[in-house]
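Researcher: Going back to the complex we discussed earlier. I've cleaned up the inputs and rechecked each line, so this should be the final set. Can you rerun the prediction on the complete assembly and write out the structure?
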Amino acid sequence: MTKRLMRTIAIVAVLALVLVACGTPGGDETTTTTAASGTTAAPTTTAAGDTTTTEAMMECTEPIKLGLLQPLTGGLAASGGDAKDGFELYWETNGLTAGGCDIEFRVVDTAGNPDTALQLVDELVDNYGADIIVGELLANVTLALADRLKDKDVIFMSPIGSADDLTQREVDTYPNFTRAGGWTSSQTSHVLGDWAYKEGYRNVATICTDYAFGHEMCGGFTQVFTEAGGTVVPAQQLWNPLGSTDLGTYVTQLDGFGVDAVFALQVGASVSDLLNNWTNFGLKDSLPMLGGEVMMDVSNVRNVPAEQVIGLISSGHWAEGLEAPATQDFVAAFDGAFDRIPSYYAAATWTAAQYIQESIEAMGGDISDRAATLDVMKGLALDTPFGPSVLDEYGNPIYDIYIRQIEERPDGRVWNVVIDTYEDIDQFWPKTAEEYLAQPVYSRDFQGNAGG
Amino acid sequence: MMKRLSLTNRVKLVLLAAAIGFGVAAPYIFSSFIVGLLSLALIAGLFAMSIDLLAGYAGLVTLGQAGISATASYGVGYMANKVGAGIPAQLLVGIAAGLVASAVFAAMAMRTGGVAFIMITLAQGMIVWGLSIRLYQITGAENGLTGIDRPAFVSEYWQYYYFVLTVVLICSFLLFIAVRSPFGSSIKGIRESESRMRMLGYNPALQKFYVFMVSGFFASVAGILFVYLNEFISPSAAYIAASAIGVLEAILGGIGTLIGPMIGAFIIVYIQNIVSTNLERWPTLMGLIFIVVILFARQGIVGAISSGWRRWLESRGPSGPGTAGRDPSDELALDSS
Amino acid sequence: MTDTLTQATSREAIIRAQRRKRRLIFTAASLVVFALLVWWILGKMSVKSFWLQALNGLSFGAVLFFLASGFTLIFGLMRITNLAHGGFYLVGGYMGFSVMNWTGNFALAIFGAAMGITVVGLFTERILLRPIRGMEQPEVLLTIGLTFVLGDLSLAVWGGDPTPVPVPAFLQGPLRIGDFAYPRYRLFVLACAIVVALVLFYIERRTRLGAIVRAGVDDRETVAALGINIKAVFTGVFMFGAFLAGFSGVIGGGFLTLLPGQDFEILLFGLVVVILGGLGSLPGAVLGAVLVGLIDSFAKALVPELSFFTLFAPMALILVLRPQGLLGRE
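Model: Rerun complete. Updated structure for the full complex:
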């Protein structure tokens, strides 16, 4: 080894020792200020094209910051895009200000990937200094975010991701979480189970995607339907893997079961796959399909030939055809801005934004006390595009749930109109919170089937 | 052994020392977010280096490495979340799971090479992905597994960063030794000519198996470091995109150079996390980088720098000490299959 | 000298006889396994269900056949593993969707989209792949990069909504024969596959072009030496493979909804098909597609949780027992 080399190594070693003597780093854990260190490359304005507020600063020394995480690329890009549009449209319509304070927000793309989402939310909270985080779309990403954020000084809202336990059995693990503008997966399918029985169906088969969301939706329907007196044979509950490419096989099986109706919940491309096969195998006119909310959501049926969906029934907290001013104003604004009828994803983030603005207003612009802000949020009774909305003590909304039917509008597009309403439904209906929480969360093994 | 180091080697050593120095100083300069990204980049670099061992030295491009690292991650996650075991048990199961996956993959693929190898490893990686979505009792399916807490002594972001830095440096050193050992030479022999190796008495299939296992070991280490970084694991970690991006990092940096993949990883992590907040079409950007690198700069960044440096050296002519001419310790980048 | 020659030829004859015997045993064994499977399945479902699921599997396999045939042709002649085939499928499907929306003419949509993808294929082969011809691994990796680009651009252009390709009214709804009702469209797809397979076989076996291609597979240099513009043949074959991929995208999109990410999914199925059937073999593509389609369909009906395994287990088996595929060359 040359002397020069030894010298270099010695210098580096000394430098290292000096650094260690300087003390440990890690002093900038949680920042709610905008102190981004000079070497970060992340800009502090909103995503390309979005407007940050440039109005004169009022009493607040700095704007309130929001972060919205959604999948803007990948298989869920359409739904994520709707969510982003709904959120942005709210602020454009109502102004980025509340309680005398300016508001700014940033939208980031998770690509539907939990690891990316975790990376991004770290940046939003530690670097950007977000006060409120809104997201995501998928239940699994939402759970990961909730876990990451539970010890941080932020409010976490999930108006779309519907993992049930966040406001049920795990509610105490996530004290800074609320589902304003959101729902639990089974909240809407409970209602459909009751309605199905009242309509005279006695024997129903189900086809739901084989993952948590599908289990919870099917479970909600099955439990209420069977406890009312209906029958769901476990062997007639079909579970197709997530991302199944060809559902013809399942449709053939359902045809052979000889049931009165089929409860169906699919996501993504599988929705139109199922609807397509449903018509082409000739079942549309012979076997009634009852859809879980997402199944008949306008984002999924937009591109499907109208004949395949007209007349189909589902339940949901969102009904774009609801004749209420808050709903129709929102639909008109969205349609005008984006030339499409809003899906529940758009309505959800709009409503979340509404809750945020109202809460900030009620807190007088100072939301640094997160717990107090959350209490205020839970106390609000708002008129949202979903209808009247009040949060229960677990942080989940109580809504009117609608029985919807797909109709063709005069302009040729399809949407869901309301044919029946169940008022003031919370996440546990028709049980009480104690009864409901005593049973396990819905899964493949537990569908709440009263027939056993 | 007072062997004088060539200019090239001295430059390399200085650069390495500077990089390490920078790495040590990083938490003092950057925010927690950036340091977190640096940890991620180091882990991605280790992952890409494990791919390089197969692709650059053995000539076997794998598109399923993410399947192996994800298996190791899930091993840790399962023990932490579903079994509630302690850290040592988690690590043990994690490494074991990763090695078992490597062995199974290697057994299926060792008799093939070239394009068939690529396709088989692609399918293997996707099988792991498919399993992680379906076996929800073990993997939590789409929801993934949470609650995978780091050991207490590295719970702070900067502590974990130093831990990652140390582990990655050690692994890099091990890989460095491995490729310069007789084992490494036999691996390179497989890439050059299998028939020749057979004549020399080697069993090419067995050699491939060994190198696959070694590569899988380092991929598993990367997987374990990753799961503790995010304290979370989900199926997307096994998807083909993860494997393909690993290969991209290796090629971008320079296949067959070991340090190249690390550099490639830093660049790609930068693009994914910082550029993507501004650029909606970043998958297109990634694909274009892939294409451009393959078409115009197959040696990658390090390969290009190496060639440029060598040319500069040669142009200087044999003047004085320090210009030792062609440096046999320089790794030639892979140019063809 | 004649002695060694006789020795050599008789050794060859012995090897060939051994191979034939092995192939016979293998075929006999597979037929037995197949028969047992059918018998077991019939024990679990009615005959009517059996035929319905078989048709489901065959119609799905038909789409895979279109995709795999182009892929295997390109590989067989040029030894290029075009992993961008999945991207070709997806973009082709989207193009067909657009043309169908503009014109309402299904034939136009199919051929328009396929021609569009052919152009993409031309660009890929001449501009992207030419500089790295002969280097297998860079070629493969480039096609992966291309898939990323194609997938993201199609997201930018067509958005991420699930997009089924609209089919003409006369192909919608079920065909009813007595008690039996089956979607007309899927029968159409099946018919298309039979026609395309016959056409491809005819071209390969009975035309001069097919002979050139087959010769080119065996011995590139000699074909070039014979004065045939081998480069043009290569480009032509690549374009034709791309045509088939685009074609499969539109046809498939009629009953398998298009969505971002489907490029890799369908590619995966396609890979299983060619690995099972044998890379470079057209009969292999047929056999592989039939097998994959049937396995997929019956597995979903009988063991849906394992439907993923049942697809990859045969592939793993083939790789270990007979790596060149069922009908691939030794």
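Model: Worth noting: Chain C has twelve helices and two strands.
Researcher: Good, that matches what I expected from the previous run.
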